Structure prediction request, 155 residues.
Amino acid sequence: LVSRGGLVYESYTPTNPDYKKAVHEIFHKAGFIQALGVQLKDVGPGWCETTIVLEPRHLQQDGFAHAGLVATMADHTSGAASGSLVAANEMILTVEYKINLLRPGVGESLFSRAEVIRAGKRIVVTETAVYANRGAEQKLIAKGMFTLSVLPKQS
Prediction:
């Protein structure tokens, strides 16, 4: 077990020794994620952090970060955290998620952190938090639970 941010998580050993490169590819190859501007901040075995600088195109009609952006960021961050644990010949695909939007996303940027809470042979479960950054203040705006499937990589 390992403690991060005051919480205790399982400690994982990556199956793929090049997992960091594999996670970078998850971001590089995802055209939608590239178009949004979601950036990989850091990754380790079973966890991932991402950021995005908010622009007018990311906001909904009332000036808050769009819920679709928040959910997409949480989903992709969860996929990358899960992807850090699979073999080089495997891939991750989200099968289900639940996200609670806790407050409007207001600020200059968003930050997301995903943690694997259960890594099975075929199913991975993660929890993800998304925060809005406004100046020096960071507020939790969303919390999600994700179930992801481990599949053979497509050629």
User: Anything to note?
Assistant: Strands lie at 2-4, 7-9, 39-44, 47-53, 90-101, 109-119, 123-134, 137-152. The radius of gyration is 15 Å. The first helix runs from residue 19 to 28.
